[in-house]
Every structure is written in structure tokens, then in C-alpha cells.
Write a structure and sequence with these properties.
With 66 residues, the chain is an alpha+beta fold. The protein is built from 2 helices and 3 strands.
């Protein structure tokens, strides 16, 4: 918690993709957000908006192949 900014949203590690996309689509959202443990708010890593969109693109591509 010492390094997390309290004015920025975080992404709990158990959050589903649609919820994360909703957070990233908010106006003035940062390009990267902290990924935290939902039980104790420990920093687990960082999620980049571009990477999240790449995951969504890959899911859509795979859906077309089926």
C-alpha cells in the first residue's frame, strides 16, 4: 500500500476481463494500473491498457476460428 496511489483505481487479481475493460475505458484512466491481491491489497504487478486490448483481440480472433 505504501507505493499505490489512492487516487487511481486498482485491478483486483480476481477481476473478470469485462470489468477490467470498464475501468480502463473511464475518462482520464492511466495507461497502466496496479494489479492487487483482493484479500490484502498487496501489489502483484501492473496491467497495461494496450496488453488488455491485445488479450481481447486474441479472444475475438480465436472465436472467429471456431
Amino acid at each position: 500500500m505504501d507505493v499505490l496511489r489512492s487516487d487511481m483505481p486498482t485491478l483486483p487479481a480476481d477481476m473478470h476481463l469485462p470489468e477490467a475493460l470498464g475501468i480502463f475505458s473511464r475518462p482520464h484512466c492511466a495507461e497502466s494500473l496496479a494489479l492487487v491481491n483482493p484479500n490484502n491489497d498487496l501489489l502483484l504487478g501492473v496491467v497495461n491498457k494496450t496488453d488488455l486490448y491485445l488479450v481481447l483481440s486474441e479472444i475475438m480472433r480465436r472465436e472467429k476460428l471456431q
